[in-house]
Amino acid sequence: MYKVFVRNWWKVNQEWPNGLEPDSNARKTTIGHADSEDEAREMAQNYNATHKQGRLSRKAEFTLEEQ
Known about the structure:
Structural class: alpha+beta
Mean pLDDT: 96
Number of strands: 5
Shape: elongated
């Protein structure tokens, strides 16, 4: 099973160029689950197509959940 989630790619930090620092530890918010990689990819693409990323580049992704 795949977990589909959203997170911000950047965080505000005025000491970094453009005031943004990469944020690999950003909080992930689950938006759904999928039985196949194709279904998970479609869910993420649909989310990204219908939601603005904003300055912090909030995007949907997916990962295979370990059982």
